[in-house]
């Protein structure tokens, strides 16, 4: 699902459809996107501190989405993150 969502985000970045929240984030530039990532990270923390499992799921979903928007803004592909995590895992196994 993350790859599908990232593809949709990339499409919104390129085509900027009217009324798209994703396009709105890109139009606001890096500062708008970073602000949303920060807000969502804080909401994850608050949810984890007692708002229940479902709320944590919802907030982490929001954080994932906004993080994917940031990756697209920065020109970073989701596969770059996967490669980094894979390499860290391999490095850890070699220790």
Molecular structure report:
This protein has 95 residues and is mainly α. Helix content is 85%, strand content 0%. The protein is built from four helices and no strands. The chain has helices at residues 2-15, 21-48, 53-74, 78-94. Helix 1 packs across helix 3 (53-74). The longest helix is centred in the middle third of the chain and has 28 residues, at 21-48. The model has no long low-confidence stretch (mean pLDDT 95).
Shape descriptor:
globular
Distance, first to last CA: 32 Å
Largest sheet: none
| Unreliably modeled segments | none
Spell out the key features of this protein.
95 residues; 85% helix; mainly alpha
Write the layout of secondary structure elements.
Layout: H1 2-15, H2 21-48, H3 53-74, H4 78-94
Helix pairs in contact: 1-3, 2-3
Short description:
This protein is mainly alpha-helical and 95 residues long.
